[in-house]
Amino acid sequence: MRLLLLSFTSLLFTIALTAQRPSVKRSVKQGKKINIKGTILDAETQQALEFATISVHSVKDSSLIVGGVTDMSGKFSLDSPISEVYLALDFIGYKTTVVTDVPIPNGSKVINMNIISLSPDGVNLDDIEITAERSETTFALDKKIFTVGKDLANRGGTAQEILDNIPSVTVDVEGNVSLRGSENVRILIDGKPSGLIGISGSGGLRSIPSNLISQIEVVTNPSAKYEAAGTAGIINIVLKKDKRAGFNG
């Protein structure tokens, strides 16, 4: 009788264990995303780069899987449904960096890229000026890039006139800049604040001749730091390489 009772108890335990297995499998399947994290720094100063763009691409077909930006500490954290990926990193005024040696996790759901350093862009902008006869707009993951061609640069205008030619950007007669109807716009020169220009630009835009400008970058989805301050977006004025002295800082 005791043996029969033990056999019956063992049978019940086996049935209960078998019944639990599908739920375990489901939880693993639902939580299979891989978290990719790291920190992006300036290669020369080792300072954190806020609002740098991270794009996660599939190794198989280079399709974009997920994208995001760094926080004020230069940190990023993205969830990818696949682990065989590579990263493309981009930031205003820096070289685009592609990271292909992304480790494939062995039983872990986290890929820690640790510190990734970006180098300042050393592209010869004089060459770009020769080929860019007409102004044009291109679109990146987090921003619009307006390349200033000779058709605008040679008119003898200023940064104010250049901005007024960009879609979604308006400048009033006093030099105040609005982005999509909001005047809470952070304006930078070569990715840095300038004493000439602050929030919404004011009159400082008139002091920058249009022939000194290479590109205008418009970020319409600012990071949490700028959103908390009520900033509707960021406009970065990229100067030609040999014309930068005296405008930053």
CATH topology of the largest domain: Ferric Hydroxamate Uptake Protein, Chain A, domain 1
Helical content (DSSP H or I, runs of 4+)? 10-25%
**Total of domains:** 2
Shape: elongated
Q: What is the CATH top level name of the largest domain?
A: Mainly Beta
Describe the protein in words.
This protein is of the alpha+beta class and 249 residues long. It folds into two domains: 34-118, Immunoglobulins (Immunoglobulin-like, Sandwich); 125-243, Ferric Hydroxamate Uptake Protein, Chain A, domain 1. The protein has five helices and 14 strands. The strands form four sheets. Strands 8-9-13-14-12 form a five-stranded mixed sheet. A hairpin with a 5-residue loop joins β2 (53-58) and β3 (64-69). The chain is elongated, with a radius of gyration of 26 Å.
Features:
249 residues; alpha+beta; Ferric Hydroxamate Uptake Protein, Chain A, domain 1; 2 domains; 4-stranded antiparallel β-sheet; 31% strand; disordered N terminus
Write a brief caption for the model.
This protein is of the alpha+beta class.
What is the topological layout?
Layout: H1 2-30, E1 34-42, E2 53-58, E3 64-69, E4 75-80, E5 85-90, E6 97-99, E7 110-118, H2 125-131, E8 136-139, E9 144-147, H3 150-153, H4 159-164, E10 169-171, E11 177-179, E12 185-189, E13 213-219, H5 224-228, E14 233-239
